[in-house]
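User: I'll paste a sequence; please echo it back and then give the predicted structure.

Assistant: Echoing your sequence first, then the prediction.
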Amino acid sequence: MNLLILGLVIFLGVHSVRVFAAPWRDATRARLGEGAWKGLYSLVSLAGFVAICWGYGLARQAPVTLWVPPLGMRHAASLLTLGSFVLLAAAYVPRNVFKARWGHPMLLGTKLWALAHLLANGNLADVLLFGGFLAWAVVLFIVSRRHDRALGTTYPAASRTGTAVSVLVGGASWVVFALWAHGLLIGVRPFG
């Protein structure tokens, strides 16, 4: 469990620097240079991600059950993760309704993904992993929206094309991941 917690602290901490320590980040980036900063950021993020994966894998070998979710929660999780994939796609597709309305669709997608997995899983490692991501995404979304309002940030108006591409790319990615990649990478097949 300790490795999972360490990985979460490193990974989520690095991904919070832009919001919670912007002056330090800007000064360090200026001192190191853009390329060195991105390299260091990537290495630390990767180290955190590896620790999360390794720690979660170890924790799954000796699960500590906190509750047993009802079977119907798997269906709810599937629906929520479909939404999270659409929002993830919307983070990269220009001029879509999700980005125009909320500004930070990746954080919204992370919240849906984490909530879905909390509903469908009841082990301690699941609560730490998905609860950690959910708490981080909620806080970062609130802070990011406040920051947007303070700076008067606006996002480009939505277009039907941008929204349709977000939905189609997100939906197709969800199908591939749910039917094939989740079982291959995670070892759990959501649809049997």
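The chain has a mean pLDDT of 95. The CA atoms of residues 86 and 168 lie 8 Å apart.
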